[in-house]
Amino acid sequence: MKFYSSSWSTIRVGFFYLGMINLILPGVASSEVVYKTIDEDGVPLFSDKVNGQHERVLLPKSNRTNFFESPQTKMIAIEEKEPKQIYRVEILSPPIDHTFRNSEKVSVRINVRPRIASGSGHQTRVFLDGDLLSDYGSSLNFQIRDLERGAHTLEAVLTDMADRELARSEVRTFFVQKASIFNRNRFNN
């Protein structure tokens, strides 16, 4: 009978350790990326480590709970699931295909709907011919001076604090026409 009780306590201790390992290892031992290799005999081998010529196999996330997840992590996950605000960015000025003559300033007006809340960290970035106009910051109304003659494009992009794009306007094309030093009289009439 003594043998029976010591075996039973050994089994209970074994189950205790097995239970502890099962609590600790689910987050550590599992991997969502597996590599598949084929050995010389054509048998596929699967591993979580890269070994020779391999093919990456993505596994779906398992249906398990992470016991070590902090409440703050859960809050972030809840915030990410909240419905995102849909923004619309529109260039109101300059008019489409408008021609500015001589040293005329180009007035730029941008409309963002719904309005950006102050302190949200959202920024409006304006691009002229593909280059960021950093001189005007996040202003929605400003004037561009001293543009070279020719066709120009304007585009506005709304980004959040993490620099992710929330909305983008259509590209607006406009033209700048300046008097040539060879034909000044033609434009000054």
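the 2nd protein, sequnce then structure:
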Amino acid sequence: MDVAKPITSQAWSHEDETALIMKLAAAQTGLSLTQASASVNTLTANFAEMVSTIHAIKLEAEQTPSATTKRILEHCEQFLDRVQGALVGFQFYDRMHQRLDHIARHLENTLQLVGNKVAINDPVAWQTLKEKIKTSYNIEEDRVLFEQVMQGIPVKEAVKTAARHARAEPVDKVELF
């Protein structure tokens, strides 16, 4: 099986090689998102069914008050609290999915620019690409990270700043159901 195109001195260029690697990264990101989404969709559906079942149990238990019913209702509330905690994990997945989707799209847009022999040397085209990337963010720490990187801040420092900004934001309870 032929893994890669053979290198020939006439056809080889670092631009083409860069484009291939960027295409691979975009494709791998897309594949990961597709596969992860299927699993998360199954988990989400199962959580929705569990919550519906617990609500049905609570409704029935509330119809017959007793000491046992009180304990059942307490267990139902504990279960719902645990589900609420698990939903924070889904929120993390949603943010990760969003970021990986942005990465794939930004790579594809960059590939288009790099593949255009005129636009690749046009500062306006690069500025337009950066503006497109900037306006695609709807998570505040992503905007902070973008600004830091565009200002030339080293990546590790930019990540730390964005992470501090994320921790400073209040975390509300998640409602998916």
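The CA atoms of residues 162 and 168 lie 10 Å apart. The helical segments are 14-63, 67-115, 123-136, 140-150, 155-168.
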